[in-house]
């Protein structure tokens, strides 16, 4: 067997160990990973708690958005009803879509990842427990405040897609739209934080021996999901930022009369918005693949095909966004490309569906609760997929677009592709987190009502669409044939609601949280590691993984693991810790010391939410105070990390020694910073795209940029900023003050370059309010200013740590990460300076 | 004039998308039927496979349970079908594209407004000939090239029986070809959410035989502005600030041109039949009929005054 890191795979043969474990080892683990008491439930960071909070909150949003749907169906049950007045209805349909997509679907699958992945990979926790806690609290506080806007009539009413100019200040003067832009923009940041955590968790904290080809399909799905978030979400973050700036400061990004373009928003929105659909679908498909194999009591057929299909879906999904724009008057060449890509993306879905069917075919038939939802999901999802192929045909889409046909299509895809799998997952994994499983008898009723209700609600909508009923209408005129399909849809919707209500009753009766052990156990006979006996620290010891379905292939594994016969049977350092392994073959590399519970992530989340909400209601002084407190809280939480460790090397079981402090490209911190920089780069690239898009669509408004040659001092300063930051890492050996000085120098050089750049543009006569070009150039400068400011803050943070003697030497993760960030800042500034001058150059 | 469908009482089966009235809608309908029936057939096949997987004989189950079956059914079969569809779709898209406009097409500019439509008839050189609102008159058997624009936010023009939809986007002019082959009234509606009463932003297309169309055109040329108490009230009560009646001092531009309002078949942008009663009701309280529309309610009119204004307006044929 080949080795990735120089680790000798023969060492795995030492497990399971034979010697008895020392007395008190398990008690120490329990003490270190102790249960919270009282207020400590707010400061927990352990994935068992945060995952449950997260999933519970997401499900709460599902219920609330579902109630909104029922209100809409009541209003549409007959023509010209007045149950919901027009203005309320417009808020309700906007909130239904927004909440389902942003506050339910993405957080729910992310929460499932937080809850399941550490157990499934046999890690003690995710690599950044405090970041998970921050992401959760930011989402929960921000999301609930955002939702509350509907109770005071201030909810956004521009549709979940928020097309300007309807959402511009001129046509939406109220703060409703700002709630959406700031609330959702902010929740995206939380989603990205979760995604970064999931990528690093999946690639670096798998149990030893769990090479990529032995990884559970769900982990693959979450990996692709998280990478897609990192690439897609920056686009909507930039979009919401630009639209909010247009509203607040009158910079005309989307105003056609001043050289902006409303279509720019549509590109930014859908570049996020369509991958978003697969972002929701892939984790659910991953759950399906896990559940279907267990339900059929067999191995998943086509594991490699499914992995391939998921990678292909992720890739192709970035080439389909404009199929939401077939009616905007794009040339046939363009629509043809997006039509072809939209059809191509259905092929990997076909591979997955037939893999599930194949698994069912070779396995045993069993209609337990997860089994029912799996089969129901396949039926619904395939139907939605077929109508998806229909609307991928451009001429048919010209008829179907923005009609109820699309409403039917998207609900089939999302309910079949995400909601039913999620319910299957609720039933399937409930015994892992609860002392009792859910009722199989009630489950049949839940399924029957949901399946029938879903079809009765959404099948007639295809017809309503073909009859000419547009979407997003608060009522309709009688006499167009809309009455019957709408009434039937309403009846179906309430059946679906009844099914969910029954599920809630079951939940109330049987769900008893069991995070500290004593769960219902492996009811369905699952074969992956989350079914090991576990407590808050996950499994007692971290097993060597030798196959894809370790529990089925080694019936003694569970017992050995519980007796501490595998890796890390106790705590090696007296802290919370997990083993960091190599990305491909999962060879143990080092022991990561993990942070424990802390109030600071909670405080940081509350203040971050406070900042965005205060901006929405234009309480600017409160906003700035919140922002400063949020930054202080984050710095305070970081302050406790990256400390020197007493033992440089420790025994992680069977005499295998690994280091406890690793810096450079092998460390999980380095990986995280690189992913964060990818996010920042994507935001910046989308801003550059915006500039190029406006230049080609609004050439009449384009002013000649300053000359390339005049920018030489700028390029030079950015180059200097890059080199200064780069030099910090090797010079740390000499003296901890070296990197601090160099970081300040780098940030000042970048700041000066930015200032020169901006004065150059001002001298060329560009003003942000005057034209789309001016607005985007100013936005690029603002992004750069944010990066420089953050770099400066990092330099100051390093200075403070050196002053307090907390900087480790000769290597330090803190210095590594600041170095990466400042190098990136310089590169971003240089790119922006060159690109801005190149676009429209004469 | 013959009319095959009534604008406010259409519906039922066949649904408009599957009931084309002109060549541009017709080719899409053929495609729609193929997609609906083909999609249904594929659904049946997949369900049959699922049925076999669950309940079938072991021999078939084994064949279904391998990677070859996954490739064949999940990839090869859809790939072949989709390739065929894609080629058809691409061909059809370019044949329907308004860039290949027939030389004899009539040209009309339609501008979407928050929550109604301006209709500007143009001559062959693009000069404006006639203004109207919320209703488009066309001759049968002749392609009509629509130039679609937006005055405020994004709207979308959609008359399902005559063709697909096309967005109206501020700062752009989109082109759409429609054609009706039989005289009649074809209902349309704004398909892009445009805020407020988007649900009540309707539209009708009236297709005439060539002779009827010529008569209609001729009837539009004289400006029969009328006179009397109704006009005086119209001018003195603020109506003229937003509405134009050519031949009178009323020259407002914010709302629909009312020069021929009496001959329109609908009021409020396709939502009410047009008669003296509905006209009076609309003037008195359009906000109750179409909440959020830009016309204020005229509660200040006495019943008598209201009758005078509405009687006057319905005479503007």
What secondary-structure arrangement, pairings included, does this model have?
The complex is a heterodimer of chains A (842) and B (317).
Chain A: H1 25-32, H2 47-75, H3 86-121, H4 129-148, H5 176-204, H6 217-249, H7 262-295, H8 303-316, H9 332-344, H10 346-362, H11 369-392, H12 394-400, H13 404-433, H14 440-466, H15 483-510, E1 534-535, E2 538-539, H16 550-553, H17 557-562, E3 576-581, E4 588-594, H18 600-616, H19 620-639, E5 649-651, E6 657-659, H20 668-697, H21 712-731, H22 737-763, H23 772-803, H24 813-838
Antiparallel strand pairs in A: 1-2, 3-4, 5-6
Helix pairs in contact in A: 2-3, 2-4, 2-15, 3-4, 3-5, 3-7, 4-5, 4-18, 5-6, 5-18, 5-20, 6-7, 6-8, 6-20, 7-8, 7-10, 7-13, 8-10, 10-11, 11-13, 11-14, 13-14, 14-15, 18-19, 20-23, 20-24, 21-22, 21-24, 22-23, 22-24, 23-24
Chain B: H1 23-55, H2 58-64, H3 67-96, E1 106-113, E2 116-122, E3 128-133, E4 135-139, E5 144-150, E6 155-157, E7 166-168, E8 174-178, E9 184-189, E10 202-208, H4 210-220, H5 229-236, E11 266-267, E12 272-273, H6 276-289, H7 303-314
Parallel strand pairs in B: 1-5, 4-10
Antiparallel strand pairs in B: 1-2, 2-3, 5-8, 6-7, 9-10, 11-12
Helix pairs in contact in B: 5-7, 6-7
Please, could you describe this protein's structure?
Chain A: Pfam families: COX1. Chain A: Residues 27-558 form the Cytochrome oxidase subunit I profile domain. Chain A: Keywords: Cell membrane, Copper, Electron transport, Heme, Iron, Membrane, Metal-binding, Oxidoreductase, Respiratory chain, Transmembrane, Transmembrane helix, Transport. Chain A: Its EC number is 1.9.3.1. With 842 residues, chain A is an all-alpha fold. Chain A has 24 helices and six strands. Chain A folds into two domains: 57-510, Cytochrome C Oxidase, Chain A (Up-down Bundle); 686-838, Four Helix Bundle (Hemerythrin (Met), subunit A). Helices cover 63% and strands 3% of the residues of chain A. In chain A, the strands form three sheets. Chain A has a two-stranded antiparallel sheet. In chain A, helix 21 (712-731) packs antiparallel against helix 22 (737-763). Chain A starts with 24 loop residues before the first helix and ends with a helix. The model of chain A has no long low-confidence stretch (mean pLDDT 95). Chain B contains seven helices and twelve strands. Chain B has helices spanning 23-55, 58-64, 67-96, 210-220, 229-236, 276-289, 303-314, and strands at residues 106-113, 116-122, 128-133, 135-139, 144-150, 155-157, 166-168, 174-178, 184-189, 202-208, 266-267, 272-273. Chain B has a five-stranded mixed sheet with strand order 3-2-1-5-8. In chain B, strands 4-10-9 form a three-stranded mixed sheet. In chain B, helix 6 (276-289) packs across helix 7. Classes of the chains: A mainly alpha (842), B alpha+beta (317). At the A-B interface, helix 3, helix 9, helix 10, helix 11 and helix 12 of A face helix 1, helix 2 and helix 3 of B.
